[in-house]
Specification:
6 strands; globular; two-stranded antiparallel ribbon; 4 helices; mainly alpha; 58% helix
Length: 140
């Protein structure tokens, strides 16, 4: 890859990461709102299980690219998982949409096999990234 292409990708990744970083806040329970319209005139305070997975993987990528430290990654991810623990579920399955401020499932409540499948894939990627980060700590 040429240097200019790599620089373009890094700038794009950083801009994307900044969006996730800016909007994954205590007010949003460390989740990410589905829609942010600039200027900040519209924020849809809901998250899907796909969005949740993308948030987790964006943190992992940000750490891999040096935009986020390992302690920041762990702290923010723990806060997100604490929020997920508080969300209502059906037989252990996450509903598709949640209000990011209240953590209540958005009506009509339903479970999406596609979105939950996306989340499972993201969780697998997250696990592998965490295992890699731990092994790097012990190799150094």
């Amino acid at each position: 890859m040429e240097a200019k292409d790599e620089a373009l990708l890094r700038r794009s990744a950083l801009r994307t990461w900044r969006l996730f970083r800016e909007f994954s806040t205590p007010e949003e329970n460390w989740l990410i709102p589905d829609i942010v319209q600039e200027p900040a005139s519209l924020i849809v305070h809901r998250v899907s299980t796909t969005n949740l997975g993308m948030l987790l993987n964006s943190r992992l990528a940000a750490m891999d690219m040096g935009f986020l430290t390992l302690p920041e990654f762990v702290a923010d991810t723990e806060k997100t998982f604490e929020a997920v623990d508080r969300m209502p579920k059906l037989n252990g399955q996450l509903y598709n949409w949640y209000d990011t401020r209240t953590l209540e499932a958005v009506t009509p409540r339903f479970i999406s096999s596609v979105d939950n499948g996306n989340l499972v894939c993201c969780l697998w990627t997250l696990k592998q990234g965490c295992l890699g980060a731990v092994s790097e700590l012990y190799l150094d």
